[in-house]
Amino acid sequence: MSNCALYFILNLVFILLSYNYAVCEDAKPAGNKRYLLYDCNPGEGFNLRRDVYMRVANLVKSLRESKSCKGDDWVLVLPPWGRISYHWKEHGMEQSLIPWSMFFNVKSMSGFVPVIEYEDYIEEVGEAVIDELWYLQNYAEGWSSGTWEEKMHERDCIENPVYETDSEGKIRGWFWGYEETYAKTFKCVSVQGMSKLFVKPLCGGNTTAKSVMLDRGENMLHDMFGGKRYWDCRRSMVFADALIKTADQFRSKYLDSDDVRDKTVMPENWKDHKCTEDAIGGPYIAAHVRRKDFLYARKEFVPSIKQVAKVLSEKMKEYKVDKVFIASDGTKEEMKELKSLLPGMFMYKPTKTEKSEFKMGGVAIIDQIICSHARFFMGTKESTFSFRIQEEREIMCFPKHTTFNRICSDEGSDDCEQPAKWKIVWKSDSEIWD
User: Crossing angle of helices 352-372/241-255, nearest 10°?
Assistant: First the structure.
């Protein structure tokens, strides 16, 4: 064998050994995998729950970056949808046990923090069990000094939580409709503060449990509302493909709208998106007209049907369009009256199959997608449904004057208070905590 051949063989062996070593290094065991679960008060609506997700997701982001959590591989377990009785009119199990993948692109969400569906969690841990359940509550004494102070303490329960201990000592409760699920331990935790307040107690300060559930997650506040992390998380919440497709088909068929002409084309990966020019939107305007509980809970803000028609007719002339899309929980009679006053009015009316396939949450999202692509949008004051549409339009780079608007009440003046203009944040603002 020549020296050249021997040299070649020795180099090949060295390369193979180096490759195997690198593979072994990459395949080394991950850190201590831990799971964070959460739930909300049953009375909270669909769009508020989406906001609570963002608070918890940012907590998981902080847990994964914190020095005190070194070695812990935190994963967020998505709570199955269901039991939103007021907003989701259909009752029964068909409106429970709903995975997030029915409404959102879970792979896209995992681009912000690792997330898994609850059934995947059960498969990973081998049983429908949660090590610790923390029931979040306010402080019984309220604000002791009248000034804001971040704090958290394990306390006696102010109210009787909807959990019971069975004969085997297992904590039983709703748990998203999964009857087999139980928790090993339970405690009430009074909390007043932002999500990052949970980092220290979750990273060995108060528990080393493999899985922790935070019930009544709405008691946790945003760390940096409107900051880059807020928007990164929000941008990752891309809707499910089936919902986008259905909304796009409606836009094309009835509203002469498509992403290319409307300048609303989005990249496959949300991280690749930047605002380089303003979106135009389809040749229609859109409005969210909230009725029902708002008619008595916020009656001073709610316009009459005639006022809605008057304002929208004026906006249609201003934007030189002859079509208007309405998303509303109004009665059939109210919408019939509005249609008579707005001949160019369209609404998305799901078929029986679509209702069954998309559920109430999916139908609401389709309404939001169509509204968010309009040339001009008007919402309802203090409605999270409207706020989510405004966020979508911010993400798609619509001008703010076409996004942050509302229809004033009949008694309201032409310059009644309009929604706050929340500007999307693209660049980092050093939101890293130890």
Answer: 70
Instruction: Verify that 162 and 307 share a domain, yes or no.
Output: no
List CB contacts of 272: < 8 A, sequence separation 6 or more: none
Alpha-carbon distance values, 188 to 134, 153, 229 (Å): 6, 9, 29
Element (H, E) at 368: helix 352-372
How many residues are listed for the chain in this entry?
Answer: 434
Q: Which residue has the tokens 């339009």?
A: 393
H helix intervals, 100-139: 106-109, 118-125
Q: Is 44 a catalytic residue?
A: yes
User: 331 in a domain, yes or no?
Assistant: yes
**CA–CA separation, 85 and 82 (whole Å):** 8
> Could you tell me the residue range of the domain that residue 111 belongs to?
32-228
Q: Which residues contact 267 (CB under 8 A, 6 or more apart)?
A: 273
What are the phi and psi torsion angles at 165 (to 5°)?
A: -100, 125
Q: What is the pTM of this model?
A: 0.87
Question: Cβ distance 151 to 192 under 8 Å?
Answer: yes
- The CB density around residue 299, as the number of other CB atoms within 10 Å, is 9
State the virtual CA torsion across 132, 133, 134, 136 in degrees, nearest 10: 170
pLDDT tens by residue, 397-433: 999 999 999 998 887 655 588 888 888 998 875 443 3
Q: 227: which residues sit within 8 A by CB, 6+ positions away?
A: 425, 429, 431
Residue stretches of the chain with pLDDT short of 50: 2-29, 91-93, 430-434
Characterise 383 by phi-psi region: left (phi > 0), alpha (psi -120 to 50), beta (else).
Answer: beta
Q: In angstroms, rounded to a whole number, what is the distance separating the alpha carbons of residues 95 and 89?
A: 9
Contacts of 392 (CB under 8 A, 6+ apart): 368, 369, 372
Same domain, 266 and 397: yes
Q: What are phi and psi of 120, to 5 degrees?
A: -70, -35
- For residue 249, the SS3 value is helix
Q: Are residues 117 and 182 in the same domain?
A: yes
> 330-343, pLDDT tens digit by residue?
999 999 999 999 99
- Candidate list 25, 44, 141, 333, residue with the active-site label: 44
Q: How far is CA 252 from CA 248, 284, 319, 370, 416, in A?
A: 6, 12, 19, 10, 34
